[in-house]
Here is the input.
Amino acid sequence: MSAAVLAALKGPGQRLSLEIAGAADRPFLPRDKPPPGERYEKMRTEALASTNAYRLAVSDYWLERYESGEGFARGDAWALGLIRLAPGQWIVHSGGEPCVEWREKISQWLAPLNIVTFGYSQEARCYLPTETMLAEGGYEVLESNQGRQSTPAPFAPGIERAVRESLLQQLAFIRARTK
Here is the structure.
């Protein structure tokens, strides 16, 4: 990877004729069921034993939500945008951190555009896994949601459709406004 970056820096580059335009949206990305409250009871016990203040605060926060019956958000209005720099040169920006697997999907959806993807462009929520990753669990799917305020639940199927539809609508909007 670093060799490719260094090689690109040594090249002549490409001169662009700028035609800047952009659009932004907040598609609704569905969330699954929150983990059982016992997960946070166990986390609290372990945090007390290890004097881990962060995990203690997280467990107390969620246990209070479980006990109050307050409920949890069923999804997120996720920051997502599309910017045209020049013909064929585009940026897709996202809140949180979309996992690298999104790049291939977005490239297919927006083909033949040459895109670059940026994460953490609006807000830092959590990782955005693909639907294939949901069944795998792990940090990006489960643990990265612990510090959120609206729900600790992982994403649910439907996130890819929502992202795809949003990007295609944004592309159509940009093209219609800049003919």
Q: What stands out?
A: The chain has six helices and eight strands. The longest strand covers residues 80-86.
